[in-house]
Design brief:
This protein is α/β, with parallel strands linked by helices.
């Protein structure tokens, strides 16, 4: 990539540097909005957000800006970088431009090199033409050899030399187009060549499909799924660590219900969570069918999504805190317990059948435990509401 960038830079700047050394005078102008109406006997270097050149330039023109309009002849070379470029007058030397939208309306006496999203050339280059753009349109031919890389490419006019095309989309030739050399092109499908088109050197078509084959598609799908799983696991690890670190008392209360209570209470808590997970969607559906219950169904749906997401995170925290309490003999829940437990739960989920059953059991228990804790917190019979956070 560095090598390609170096070649690209050399192609653009080398002619300008060589010619600049031979010019006796140079003008440097810069402004936010620049309008140049005075002629320059030497080279002109301009920079600005909006540049409009209306006076002839006897030397080279080099400009950098957001929008550049050249409305006066340039005797030397032209080097332009901008989001939008319009060249409305002839260029006496080479033309090298890079930008988003490029429009060339008059002739170029030397070579033409253009890099952009859209390139429209209604002039005619005496030298060679090299264009890399998403969409390219040459409507007045060219005197030298033409090389174009792009998506959709349209040709018209009289081409005196060979034309080489590499298109990922479609190549079309306007009626009456004449190519005195050979047409060589690669594209997913043959070009649209009317019967009135003349190609003296013949045309050579190479079928180049840019769609991935079955093997490549499987590899891309595997990479996409792997990336999605990685991002999901990473996000869950971060959230679990934050919840465990910010609200250790709540995590400890959930763990206490799983570690200190009897097996019967553990099963009842998990059964409560299972009932809520299954019955809530049915209740939401019933409310949606009634006109007056749509708003309540929406609120209940938001609460359901929130509690299920929280239950999944606390299922991972529960695994990590149970490990810390059983093997590390530590009852205080730390943020790393949440990260470790969520990492374990993320791998458990990936195990077919058994992993789903185990992870669902932890989620059901976490749901029931959180609901009981929130209920006791909201409707406590004690004089002071207990702290759980």
């Amino acid at each position: 990539m560095i090598r390609i960038f170096s070649i690209f830079t050399a192609v653009l700047f080398l002619p300008v540097i060589v010619h600049a050394s031979s010019m006796p005078e140079a003008s440097f102008i810069a402004a936010r909005s620049l309008l140049s109406a005075s002629s320059s006997p030497g080279n002109v270097y301009a920079a600005g957000a909006s540049i409009v050149l209306t006076a002839p330039i006897d030397g080279d023109l080099s400009a950098l800006g957001g929008s550049i309009v050249s409305a006066a002849p340039v005797a030397g070379d032209m080097l332009l970088f901008a989001g939008s470029i319009q060249s409305r007058t002839p260029v006496g030397g080479d033309m090298r431009v890079a930008g988003g939208s490029i429009s060339i309306e008059k002739s170029v006496a030397g070579d033409l090199v253009a890099f952009g999203l859209s390139v429209s050339d209604a002039g005619r280059a005496t030298g060679s033409v090299f264009i890399v753009a998403a969409n390219t349109s040459l409507t007045n031919g060219a005197s030298g050899p033409v090389t174009i890389y792009g998506n959709n490419i349209s040709l018209a006019g009289n081409f005196e030399s060979d034309v080489d095309i590499v298109a990922s989309g479609r190549l079309s030739l306007a009626p009456g187009t004449v190519i005195h050399g050979a047409l060589t092109y690669e594209a997913p499908e043959p070009a649209l060549i009317p019967s009135s088109v003349t190609i003296v050197g013949g045309n050579t078509y190479t079928n180049a499909s840019y769609l991935p084959d079955v093997g490549t598609s499987r590899i891309l799908a595997l990479i996409s799924v792997s990336f999605f799983i990685f991002v999901r696991i990473l996000g869950a690890l971060i959230l679990a660590g934050l919840l465990a670190g910010l609200f250790p008392k709540l995590a400890r209360k959930v763990t206490d219900r799983a570690y200190t209570k009897s097996l019967q209470n553990v099963l009842l808590t998990a059964l409560l969570g299972f009932a809520v997970c299954v019955a809530t969607p049915v209740l939401i559906l019933v409310l949606i069918l009634t006109f007056v219950g749509i708003g309540l169904a929406f609120l209940l749906g938001v609460a359901y999504i929130f509690i299920m997401s929280l239950s999944f995170l606390y299922a991972g925290i529960l695994i990590g805190s149970l490990y810390a309490r059983r093997f590390l003999l530590r009852e205080v829940v730390l943020w790393r317990d949440g990260v470790l437990g969520m990492l374990a739960l993320s791998f458990i989920v990936l195990v077919p059948v058994i992993g789903f059953i185990v992870s669902a059991s932890f989620v059901f228990f976490s749901t029931g435990a959180l609901l009981l804790i929130f209920f006791n917190f909201a409707f406590s019979r004690e004089a002071h509401t207990p702290e759980i956070l």
